[in-house]
Every structure is written in C-alpha cells, then in structure tokens.
Design a protein that fits this description.
Blueprint: E1 3-8, H1 18-24, E2 29-37, H2 38-41, H3 50-68, E3 74-78, H4 80-91, E4 96-99, H5 104-119, E5 124-127, H6 149-159, H7 162-165, H8 207-211, H9 213-216, H10 229-234, H11 239-249, H12 251-269, H13 291-299, H14 305-317, H15 322-335, H16 340-347
Parallel strand pairs: 1-2, 1-4, 2-3, 4-5
Helix pairs in contact: 4-5, 6-12, 11-12, 14-15
Length: 348
C-alpha cells in the first residue's frame, strides 16, 4: 500500500487536524514527521530556550499517542531543503500533506520544499488549519485587505457559520497511520539544547474561564484568562474547537480569537512588519540604545511597580497578563524610548 507523509509544523496534535485528516482519508498509510529546522534553531542564543523545550515536550506526547496506535513520529534535525531529498528516499511517499504556515520565512521554506517535491514527482498538498479565516478570505468590498480590526471583525462574524467551526473527524481514520516500529525522539542535547525547567500551561481551559472572560480578563490579580496562547501558537489545540466554545459562550472570548486571525492576515499581506513598522514613516524614529535602561526593564528593576511586577512574573513563570504586557511594552517604547524590536526579541 502507498505511503503519504503528514508534515507537522504548527499543528502538534492528532485530533481535528485538517491536513492530517486529508492524509488519513486518502486511503494511503500515513507517516507523520517533524523537522527541527536549523535555519531557526541556529539563531537561538539561549540554549535553554523555552520554545524548544515546549515543542520537544509536545512531540514526546504526540509520539506516545502514535505509539498507542501502532505507529511513530519520525523526527529530523537539519535544513529542510537538505533533508527533504533524504526523507523522500527513505519513506518514498506518493504525496506530502501539511498545514499552511503564514510567516514570511515559512512561506519561503515551503516554496523551496515544493520545488524539491515537484522535481521528485511528489505532490505537496497544503491546508488551512491554523486559523478560521486565512489570507484573502476576509477582504474589504474593494478587494483590499483590512488594516483596522473593528471592520475586519464585523465581516469575520458575518462570514462565520457552523461549517467553519466543524471539527475534522480524524479519529475515524486513525487505523490509517502507518504501522511501524516505535522510534524515540532525538534528545535536546543532540541539538545543542538543554531542557528549560519552566512549567507550561495545560492544553485545556474551563467553560467558566470562557464564560467569565469579559468580566475577569482586565484584572491581572485574577486568574481569569486561559493561558492557551502557546498552545494556539504551536497548534497543540484546535482553533475550531475554541472558537466554537467562544461562539456559544462568550463573544469577548471570540473577539480575542478574531484578533489572532486579523494579525495573521496582516502578516500575510504586509510581511515587512516582521522587521519594520507597519507604517514605514515610524521607522524614522530615533530610538535610544541605552543598554542599562533596557537591562533594568528586562530584569524588572525600573522602580515602576507594575512594570517590574510584570517582568519578574514573565522571567519566573514565562507568563505575563495581557494588560500588563501593554503596560510594560508602552513603558519600554514611550518612556525609555527603546526600539520595540528589542522588546519583541526579549518577549519571544
């Protein structure tokens, strides 16, 4: 029987996964893979980077779930453009399935990988999974992208119906995973990284959090937010599931998920925002390069209580409440006059 590959990226889950669903119902045996991309990892100076530990932890979970199904997750480490010819030779797939990633580097990578697969007569099939509405699905009446959230959100809600929130029934096709000997995932040490001791939030939240979100979300002292952002980022949970719950229980919760779609379409249409200001005229701002001030901000030693409390919480737990993030970000750029890119890099 033919084998196809599902390439996991920002979709580290087996359930309600669009690309994986299409692979599983294709009739072929599905071999899941993941690539630790050295084009990304080599730029990380902190070898205890929490993102790498989080991804590695979730891959271990994913591999255990596949083990229970008689399959395994093949994990590779290197430059995708170098690895793919080797992967094709090893697995000999008739097609490669994956979910779309909208970041500029990801789109460049996928273009290069698609070219490699085309040269090997292997279709590269991509699907929408990371968002409810992507790229050009929500546009102004004149066909141009929205740059203001409120009118975008109105049209988003007008377009929404049950079809877009319907989960993919992956479980019904789990028997189509390729049966193969279980393989361990390479340890962090083989990639030059160490485990970050930070604890990560759970992959679930309560209906109480969602229902009371509007009332509690503005108070940092209340545990009134879901803390699911890292799980949305790496796709360990389904956006359809959480949007469906918000649609039924809390419009304010749903609005926050719409913000996510909004900024992903901004990233798609205006990729210059990765390195520059959305409005180019703001790139002319003369920022301070006072490293002493920046270090005090990073360590939570500015003397401003709210700022310092937020930064110390972030450094200790990896979490900072959204309202506090607004305060510390504003303080960095408008009080210390330090380039927002310095803060962005620290937050990452």
């Amino acid at each position: 029987m033919n084998t196809v590959i599902h390439w996991h990226r920002r979709d580290l889950r087996l359930e309600d996964n669009a690309g994986l669903y299409e692979a599983l119902k294709s009739g072929a045996r599905v071999q899941p893979i993941f690539i630790f991309d050295t084009n990304i990892l080599d730029k990380l100076e902190d070898k205890t980077d929490a993102r790498v530990t989080f991804i590695h932890t979730e891959l271990l979970r994913l591999n255990e779930e596949l083990k229970a199904l008689g399959s395994t997750l093949k994990v590779y480490y290197g430059n995708p453009s170098v690895l793919w010819p080797k992967i094709l030779k090893e697995i000999q797939p008739t097609a490669v399935y994956t979910n779309r990633d909208y970041e500029p580097y990801a789109k460049e990578r996928d273009t290069a990988v698609e070219q490699i697969l085309t040269e090997h007569n292997t279709p590269f099939l991509t699907f929408k999974d990371h968002v409810i509405f992507e790229t050009d699905e929500i546009l102004k009446d004149d066909g141009t992208p929205y740059v203001v959230y409120t009118p975008y959100s109105r049209k988003w809600k007008q377009k929404l119906n049950d079809y877009y929130l319907q989960p993919y029934p992956n479980v019904a096709y789990f028997q189509n995973f390729k049966k193969t000997e279980h393989a361990p995932i390479l340890p962090l040490s083989e990639m030059g990284f160490e485990k970050n001791p930070m604890s990560f939030p759970k992959r679930s939240t309560t209906l109480g959090i969602i229902r009371n979100y509007e009332e509690h979300r503005n108070f940092p002292a209340i545990e009134g937010t879901s803390r699911l952002s890292v799980h949305f980022r790496f796709g360990t949970i389904s956006i359809r599931d959480k949007a469906s719950k918000g649609n039924k229980s809390s419009e304010k919760w749903l609005n926050e998920l719409i913000w996510r779609d909004f900024y992903i379409q901004i990233l798609h249409h205006f990729p210059h925002v990765v390195r520059g200001s959305f409005k180019p005229k703001y790139d002319a701002i003369q920022w301070s390069t006072n490293e002493e001030h920046f270090q005090a901000w990073c360590e939570g030693k500015t003397g401003y209580g709210m700022v310092d409390a937020g930064m110390r919480e972030l450094n200790t737990t990896g979490f900072m409440h959204n309202r506090v993030r607004m305060v510390v970000s504003s303080f960095l750029t408008k009080h210390l006059l330090i380039d927002w890119r310095w803060g962005e890099a620290y937050f990452a």
